[in-house]
Write a structure and sequence with these properties.
alpha/beta
Length: about 280
């Protein structure tokens, strides 16, 4: 299970994992469950209206393993993961999800199967800047608009959900759960990822560092149909770049300095920085 913060190159990591031998991939089942349980999605009919277009573009029989997003719940995700892989040749299930979605719902993590937890962190200056721009695009607002945290679901400050989950896993599951940094793994995947695979017990191949650039792989994932294909009809920037990738690309821009950040995210940056600093001490 890869737990990430938003805008941390977690989807390109998911695509990379999709081409590892004998894997079954689940993409953000808890994110989808969260969107429906919290009611955030139902309050935005402009987003839901795209579903009809998607069903016309991809009629039944052309959706692969993707299924209606509304079929995902915390309960069904837990049961599905505990049930195990559909293909008897599968060696392991890879799940990518966001740490904030499981906060307050730890009881819905799979319990009856062996799990390796991995944590993907990113410097708050970088990921919160990116996430602010992402949320404004999603909400149809200009880039220079004030970002109201109450209008989103990816930028909350009630708790540092990633830090809390990491501590929970260390105390109750695995005291040495691997932590990797987004910018570092993108810069040197050939160094970091073989070490990660050794930690979680998956045989490594150098050939894994490049893969098919087509996005057809998503139809083999267990994920929400509308969720993963949303960009197809909106020309959005949620998953497109990652799903059309054929290898990892390092980030050339330096991490923004604090005085370069937009004022409306300064409180969030200060909130998440202590957890990031502490987790950084335990990087693979």
């Amino acid at each position: 299970m890869l737990w990430a913060v938003p805008r941390s190159a977690s989807t390109v990591f998911t695509k990379f994992m999709s081409f590892v031998d004998n894997v079954e991939v689940w993409h953000e089942p808890y994110v989808i469950s969260y969107l429906f349980k919290s009611g955030w999605l139902s309050q935005r009919p402009e987003l839901l209206s795209h579903s009809k277009q998607l069903y016309e573009l991809y009629p039944e029989g052309k959706r692969g393993n993707l299924r209606p997003a509304e079929t995902f719940t915390y309960e069904s995700t837990k049961v599905g993961l505990e049930r195990g892989a559909k293909d008897p040749n599968t060696k392991f299930i890879f799940v990518k999800d966001m740490a904030f979605t499981i906060h307050g719902h730890y009881e819905f993590m799979p319990q009856q199967v062996p799990i390796k937890h991995v944590f993907l962190i990113r410097h708050p200056h970088r990921y919160l800047t990116s996430n602010r721009a992402h949320m404004l695009r999603l909400l149809g607002k200009p880039a220079d608009a004030f970002y109201d945290v109450t209008d989103g679901f990816l930028m909350k400050t009630e708790a540092d959900e990633m830090f809390e989950l990491w501590k929970h896993v260390r105390e109750n599951v695995d005291p040495k759960a691997p932590v990797i940094d987004s910018d570092q793994y993108l810069k040197a995947p050939e160094k970091i990822l073989p070490k990660l695979f050794a930690e979680i017990g998956i045989p490594w191949k150098d050939s894994y560092l490049s893969w098919d650039a087509s996005d057809d792989i998503v139809f083999k994932w267990t994920s929400g149909f509308e969720h993963i294909l949303f960009d197809k009809i909106t020309q959005g920037q949620i998953f497109n770049k990652a799903l059309s990738s054929g290898k990892f690309h390092s980030v050339e821009k330096p991490i923004p300095k604090r005085d370069e950040l937009h004022p409306d995210i300064l409180n969030m940056v200060d909130h998440y920085m202590p957890g990031y600093v502490e987790m950084s001490k335990h990087l693979l």
